[in-house]
User: Which sequence fits this backbone?
């Protein structure tokens, strides 16, 4: 993937944060269908912080877990207003204090919005890195992240996340990996196993 970047549509860290919260267990394609109306109605954290649950829910009802995500979005916006002057914080520690923001989301925001060395591990990254052999017996995303950061220089952590996620989305798919057309086959543990069976 010569151009490896997020497929979420956003214009600033606040919009990216909303999109990444919505993207949990939901496709980027679906998120990109929902966010234009959300961004138009709530272009800044203060407006989202004052929104009703019903209004936000109505805009995101077609994504996974809309009830929880509605609570997270409103709570996140309220915290941005109350503690951070309406600005998205750039530190991993502060990001993970926000409702709906775990380690993966914080890593995405840190690397994409603030160009910090961070490697987010989602389901695609977890699966692909194990198949290729970049991780061995990693039981959690955090274990996978620790192993992966040992394979890439710090300055490539952000793009490595996108390389792996896009490879998992379009080539090394969950059910039927396209091993025949994959350029990583000569280096891939999974592909080598397939040849010997």
Assistant:
């Amino acid at each position: 993937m010569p151009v490896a970047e997020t497929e979420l549509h956003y214009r600033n860290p606040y919009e990216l944060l909303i999109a990444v919260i919505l993207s949990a267990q939901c496709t980027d394609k679906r998120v990109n269908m929902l966010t234009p109306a959300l961004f138009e109605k709530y272009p800044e954290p203060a407006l989202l912080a004052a929104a009703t649950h019903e209004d936000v829910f109505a805009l995101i009802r077609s994504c996974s877990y809309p009830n929880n995500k509605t609570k997270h979005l409103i709570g996140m916006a309220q915290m941005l207003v109350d503690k951070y002057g309406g600005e998205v914080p750039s530190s991993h520690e502060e990001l993970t204090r926000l409702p709906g923001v775990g380690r993966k989301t914080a890593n995405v925001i840190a690397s994409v919005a603030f160009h910090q060395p961070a490697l987010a591990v989602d389901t695609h990254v977890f699966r692909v890195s194990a198949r290729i052999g970049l991780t061995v017996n990693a039981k959690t995303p955090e274990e996978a992240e620790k192993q992966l950061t040992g394979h890439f220089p710090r300055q490539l952590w952000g793009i490595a996340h996108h390389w792996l996620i896009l490879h998992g989305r379009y080539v090394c798919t969950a059910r039927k990996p396209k091993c025949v057309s994959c350029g990583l086959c000569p280096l891939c543990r999974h592909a080598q196993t397939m040849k010997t069976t």
User: Anything to note?
Assistant: The mean pLDDT is 94.
